[in-house]
Each structure stands twice: as C-alpha cells, then as structure tokens.
Amino acid sequence: MERRAFLGAVTGGLLTAPLAAEAQQATPAHAQKVGWLALVPLPRLLTEFQSGMQELGHVEGSTYTLLERNAEAKVERLPGLAAELVRLKPAVIVGEAFGPTQALQRVTKTIPIVFITGDPVANGFVQSLARPGGNLTGVANLSLELYAKRIEVLKEAVPKLHRLAIFAGAAIRLDLLTRGAQEAARSQGIEVLSVFTMNRAEDIDASFARATRARADAVLMYPSPFFNAHRDLLLTLAARHRLPALYEFRDFVEAGGLMCYGADNRAVYRRVATYVDRILKGAKPADLPVEQPTKFELVINLKTAKALGLTIPPSLLQRADELIQ
Which residues contact 172 (CB under 8 A, 6 or more apart)? Predict the structure, then answer.
C-alpha cells in the first residue's frame, strides 16, 4: 500500500564526536557550521537529514560542516555538550528530542535551534506553533495527541487487553506523556500497570521481566531516542516475553515489531533539513512556524502477530497503510 503523505505546516507550511579544536581546524573557511546534539547516535535517521541537506544543495564538508555530539545515553552529559557546541559558534544547532533541546535552550538565547520534539508549547520551547517567538523552531511530533488513537489501535489488535505496561526511555517529558496515556487508557477501560522508566540497556530486560510478572497484556512504547538506539534488544525481549507492543515508528515494525502508529520519522529528519537550509540563508527561527504531522501511518507485521497468537481483525487490516508479511 502507498504510504500516506506526512507533514503539514501550522500556517500552511514554510515559505517555500570529534574534539572541538579538531572540528574547528577541519572546517573549510567558506563552510557554515551546523551543530547537532543527541542523547544517543541514530545514524539511520541522521543520514535522512544529510540526504535532505544534499537535495537542498548543501554538501557536507564543503558548504557546511556538521558538528555532531551525542551523550551516549547519559542524560547528565547533555548540558556540557550543549555548552561545547555553543562555544563553537555554529550558525544553527539541531536538538534531537526533548532532552537535547532543553539543554540547548538553557545555554543560548541567540543561536538558532531546530528541534525534533513533542509538544513544544507545553515544553516551553516556543510561544505558539504559528509564531515561535524566540530562537527555537522545528518539527513537533504530536506525541500527546496521538495516545488515544494508539491505545485504541492496540486494544483492537489485542482484544484481551486489560492491563497495559508503558515503557519510557531517558530524557523525555514524562509527566505530559503519562497524563495523556493514562487518560486515553481509562477511556478504553484499560488499567495502566506502571510506567517503566529505563536509562541503561540492562533496564530494558528488567522492565520486560517486571511487566510479565505484573501480567501485562501489552506494552505501549513512548517515543525516545534511547529506544531507537536499543531497538533490536527491545524487539528481542518483546518476542521472548510474548508481549504485544505498539511503537511510534515504522522501522521497529520493519525489524520485527508488532505494529506502529505514528508519523514517518524519516520524513521528519528530512524536514529538519528544510529548516536548517532556511536559517543558513538568513531566516529567523521566530519567523518559521513549527510544523506538525497531519497524517500518520499504521504498519502491522503479520508474521509477528502470528507468532504472538494474534488474529488481526479485518477492520484494522483495512486501515493499515502497510502490512508486512
């Protein structure tokens, strides 16, 4: 099936780890510096950004130099890395998710920041989606608004779902996500057993074991760069514990996860390149409306469903954008 279109702007769209010293020496005199701060390295998605930049005429190492920093899943490292990037005086910095964006916001009010995050208004990053008003703008993934639909889809795929475990990775705005998920679960008559928070790889195994002991019927994964970095481990343990899980992004399902409902993450990273391009050409973040998804994709792995003993109802199959055999 054809994938649905993805991004729409709030106001109709946009108008059309080397050492610091080494990074400075390697920067061609005519190249603009683009900072990148992440909790964990996500090379598959970073490649999408780089491809988007190339399509817009930006050649890495020639017209721009990417100053990439990641905290290696250690949240406490984010403030220092954010300060390091600011000292390098890039033309723009990308904050990959809530934690990195928050760290950058705290150390600079002048360098443009392009974020990939959940609700940027509730998180205090912008005044409004249409008029960001400061030095931050970017793509909002609407995580909060989607939880009613995600839990509805999960309930339809797993009719026996009465007890739900929620998994949360490091450096996310846990209070906002949890409130939205709990309200959505209650409306479906589902008990949220617990929010299992994990900061290290070993926490993942322990969380699956605890969810199984608590007799969870399914797992809802919060979006988190931490989970992207440990995708294969998550999928292995979900299969071992025979726990149906719903993820936000399709690459989890392509790699063997049961199902996802969310925006195309690859399209998000390519869209970030558009923001960086406009800022490198002189645009101000305050004048660039925050974009948000308008359509989403439901992807189901039928092989995984069969392994879990699930029969996906025809009504859900018909709504799926893609069925992986």
Answer: 97, 98, 99, 118, 222, 223, 224
* Nearest Cα to Cα of residue 71 among 107, 36, 106, 47: 36
Q: Indicate the burial class of 138 (C-beta count within 10 angstroms; 0-12, 13-18, 19 or more).
A: buried
The answer to whether the CB of 125 falls within 8 A of the CB of 136 is: yes
Phi-psi region of 10 (alpha: psi -120 to 50; beta: other; left: phi over 0): alpha
Domains and CATH numbers, the chain: 7-142+264-293 (3.40.50.2300), 144-262+297-324 (3.40.50.2300)
Of residues 65 and 186, the one with the higher pLDDT is: 65
SS3 label, residue 223: coil
pTM of the model: 0.83
Residue 261's contacts (CB-CB under 8 Å, 6 or more residues apart) are 146, 149, 150, 153, 246, 248, 296, 297, 298
Calculate Rg over the CA atoms of the chain.
Answer: 20
- pLDDT-derived band at 306 (thresholds 50, 70, 90) equals very high
Amino acid at 196: F
